[in-house]
Design brief:
Layout: H1 3-13, E1 17-24, E2 29-35, H2 39-56, H3 58-69, E3 82-86, E4 90-96, E5 103-110, H4 115-131
Antiparallel strand pairs: 1-2, 1-5, 3-4, 4-5
Protein name: Roadblock/LC7 domain protein
Organism: Ruegeria atlantica
Length: about 130
C-alpha cells in the first residue's frame, strides 16, 4: 500500500478529518499528503517545517529533561509521542511513529470533531500509515 493510499484510508475513519500528512522531521519534508479541503494543502506544507520544532524544540527538550529527572519518563524514550493542538477552527493531531522516531503523521480535523474519537481513530491508523513508508 502506498503512503497516499494509507493516508486516504485513515482520513475516511477519523471524524471530520480534512487533511493528513506524513512528515520527516530531519528534513522538514512532507513525504505524503491527502487533502479533502484545498485550503489545507498550504497548511500541511507550513506544518511540515514547524513540526520538528514542536517535537524537538528547546522548550520541549527542557520539559522532557525535567520529566526524566523526576523519573516520570523512561530514559530511552524518543520524546513526546503525541501532540494535539486546538485552534479556533481546527484540531491538529501529531503522532510520532514508533518505527521511525523522526517521522510524524499529522491529521487536521474540523473543530466539530469528537476529540476522543479523533484521537482514538488516529492512533489506530498509525500502524498502517507507518507500514506504507
Amino acid at each position: 500500500m502506498s503512503i497516499q493510499t494509507a493516508l486516504n484510508s485513515a482520513m475516511e475513519t477519523i471524524p471530520d478529518c480534512i487533511a493528513a500528512g506524513y512528515i520527516d522531521m530531519e528534513t522538514g519534508m512532507l513525504l505524503g499528503s491527502s487533502v479533502s479541503d484545498p485550503d489545507c494543502a498550504d497548511s500541511l506544507d507550513v506544518l511540515a517545517v514547524a513540526v520538528a520544532n514542536l517535537f524537538q524544540g528547546r522548550g520541549v527538550a527542557a520539559f522532557e529533561a525535567l520529566l526524566r529527572q523526576a523519573g516520570s519518563v523512561d530514559e530511552e524514550s524518543a520524546g513526546f509521542g503525541e501532540v494535539a493542538v486546538f485552534s479556533k477552527d481546527r484540531l491538529n493531531i501529531f503522532l510520532r511513529t514508533k518505527e521511525y522516531p523522526d517521522h510524524v503523521v499529522c491529521y487536521i480535523c474540523r473543530n466539530s470533531a469528537n476529540v476522543g474519537l479523533a484521537l482514538t481513530k488516529s492512533h489506530l491508523s498509525l500502524g498502517p500509515v507507518a507500514a506504507a513508508v
